[in-house]
Amino acid sequence: MTKDPVCGMNVVSPSQFFVEKDGEKYEFCSDSCKTKFIEEPEKYLTQPEEEQTATYSINSKGKEKIDIPIVGIHCSSCIPTIESEIKKLPGINFTSVNIATEKAHIEFNNSEVKAVDIISAIKKAGYQAGQATLKLGIVGMHDASSISQIEGGLQKTSGVLNASVDLVSGTAIVKYIPGVVDLNKIKNEIRKLGYDTFDTSGVKTDKLKDSKTGGEEVDENQVAREKEYKTLMQKFIFAAVLALPVVFFSYPTVWNLPAQFQRGTETLQLIWIAMSILSLPVMFWSGSQFYTGAWAAIRNRSANMNTLVSTGITAAWLYSAVATYFPSVFPSAELADQFFDVIFVVVALVILGMALEIRAKGKSSEAIKKLMGLQAKTALVLRDGKEIDIPIEEVVLDDIVIVRPGEKIPVDGVIVDGSSSIDESMITGESIPVEKDIDDEVIGSTINKTGSFKFKATKVGKDTTLSQIIQLVEQAQSSKAPIQKIVDKISGFFAPGVIIIALLTFVVWYVFGPAPSLVYALITFVTVLVIACPCALGIATPISLMVGVGKGAENGILIRSGDALETAQKLDTIVLDKTGTVTEGKPSLTDVITANNFTEDDVLLLSASVEKSSEHPLAEAIVNGAKDKSLELKDAHNFNAIPGHGVDAEIDGRNVLLGNIKMMKKYKIDLGLLEEKSTRLADEGKTPMFVAIDKKAAGIIAVADLVKEDSVESIIQLKKLGLEVVMITGDNVRTAKAIAKQVGVDRVMAEILPQDKALNVQKLQNEGKIVAMVGDGLNDAPALAQADIGLAIGTGTDVAIEASDITLINGSLKGVVLAIQLSKATMKNIKQNLFGAFFYNGLGIPIAAGLFYPFFGLLLSPLLAGAAMAFSSVTVVTNANRLRKFKPKI
Amino acid sequence: MAIDQIIVIIVGVGLSVLVAWYFWFSEKKAVKIQSSDTGLQEAVIKVKGGYTPDVLIFEAGKPIKLNFIREETAACSEDVIFPDLGKKASLTAFKTVPVELQIDEPGEYNFQCGMGMLHGKLIIE
To answer: Which of A182, A577, A591, A602 is catalytic?
Structure first.
């Protein structure tokens, strides 16, 4: 982060807007600031630092500075729109909108214009200014004068946009800009006026109400879904209860009813009339959504399940009503039959199916709801030396946040004081708590287990890891797997196609069918309409994708799209970057070998003391190795580094040489057996260094970039999945081979420059292979992008790695295995669903049309068709939900 | 062949042709959205058994705001998905849910419900 010298805002460095002046680089938030700087650089460079850093201040001249968060800036082209709209206001001295921080920095004269006017200008430009609404209870108001007093007092407070006080309920509703003013300031302001406050419903931010982080919206949908479920169940019960007697009296011969209930009797005639009346509420209340849905769809020139069901039951009702009221219309009495039972049963079953589907679907989206629920609600922040509890939306960058044992970490940050062990399983999927110390990153929404600590907020609002994850998961869930494209083509033709098939079925049965042909024609017409289930087809892919991607997120695997998921299960080669992927990525001490009666501690202590002042990663490994053994390091004197050889220093009057074989030869040290031992260590992929004390060989210190604990096991699993595992590295062939042997990789690409990794991935692709590349998101970005699937190993809180198709938040290779297993399981599930839906419709519709009647005498009852249709989509959702039980096989 | 059979054939086939024409071949009405002075192109889309309007024409490069109002509780239309744009929104019933977009590339962008049963299209010119 660096500061824009013009407006004083924090700018992500490097910024695309910058100027080089007098050897210094100045970075800006926007082009307009840059232009201003170029025009009069002195003006901005001589300004005292103090004034620039203030995000909000009032000076005596009535000038005010304000930073207003703006929601939904997606493009740099929006900036001029907002800026020009603000500049139209009087009293605006300066305005600059920063796309990166999504804030407008405005300097204005508060006697001419108010912050609330600026907000409305932003709204006029089509954007939402990030404002929060707060409801506070106020004690001690007695008359109307309190209202104007409090409202007036609050409105004078900077950052408060609007305040309205209600005497009857004793509450104030305050609209304000978070960051400029906060809950406590507002409470204080009211207290100053002589009133006490209490919290009512808490804080609700407008800014966060969109689907990314707002828990509210989700809950509302859940409530709506519950309500819908209840209504559907009531409708179902109503239709089902009535269906029982209707079915009973519809088949008098089947149940062997007494003669007065048989066809043609007056009693039955009355029963039919009753049925025709009772069927109306079933059609228009229980089945109302079929009609409203069908009508709306038809107006849009589209057709769906509602169209099919409503057409089917309407046809059944019309025919039955004619048979009931005007039986003489039919040429033979045999034709005057009723099918009211079809209406009752089909409506009841389809409604039941819809209810069950809602239930099951609620479960499918559980993963993302779980993620959203992880968000902490409040944060304990240190401001002006005081600890204050504020809603999480008010936490700003660089706030110092205090976390106590057992508490949820509210936002992302870096520990500045204290240490603790933190349960990060909800984000990384790794169940073992992680030890964190000063300078370590903490992730928002993870849980602090043991210690207390303070951390500096580095990512807040929608930039936090959790928000990014939610966003990525939502994006992936809304993406389309390529397999879906075929389904989309079909589903556009499906429902109207079914109507045409039903019409033609009617015609064929009427013309060629056996007597009574009209009855057969009608039954088959209705059955075809009722059995077809476009929903099962439409839902097959998206529902499994939703569950699969959600399951991945639960395990710390972020799959970016349906495309990635589909490709991941087709892979045949996987390229692993060595450093940081297979290995830890930083060297550590592995061996201390002694000679000439020196002790291990001596050798280690002296070499670590020599290396203490060196910043080389190998030196750090030796120093850490000594610290792990609780050795107290000493000060080195006469330190002398000999490039390409090693170092020479004096400690406690003893001369210490540390270096490679050239160094030892230079000082004519007799190495004895050590030389052979060093060759062996090098063959194991380690870096050996000789130590000589007082010109006498003392031993060898070896460091190596150790293989991660679970790399071996993961590589075995990858091979079991049928993948060819290739390791790629910039290291020399010897080290690379040694590591490859340790982890069981057969093919090694060594001495590859970072920029050539992508080329080597391409070479593998040229062999006709579908290649995945696993590496970090920075150095390996080109190779990740080149590969068919790029799997990025997460780097702390940055999960939105552009070049990758799959991000593994938890840096272990296990994640790769899991990701591939999960995509295989998901694709299998999708295929099952699609097969089921195609098979069901492909077989069901011809059977319903009576295609098999001439050969096997097989004809489907519309009642059975209704049942089949109702449960086909429930089956699809239920099958997708099986994925929720997916367990990695490691 | 009896006269009634001939009538049934003619009517049945005629209806089939009508259905095919109505759902597949008839021209859908597209709505052209005018941008405001500030460049924002705002439209209200009613969600009830379908999207009304379902074909919208916008200008490329200017911000778009689609206000979805879902006037039904049927679960099918709960999500609106823009697969080409990787966007998704959860529509709470009887509430206005804005979806903000900015499309620079002219072309046709589909949107649909979570199950792919309801369809709409944005035409960017």
So the answer is: A577
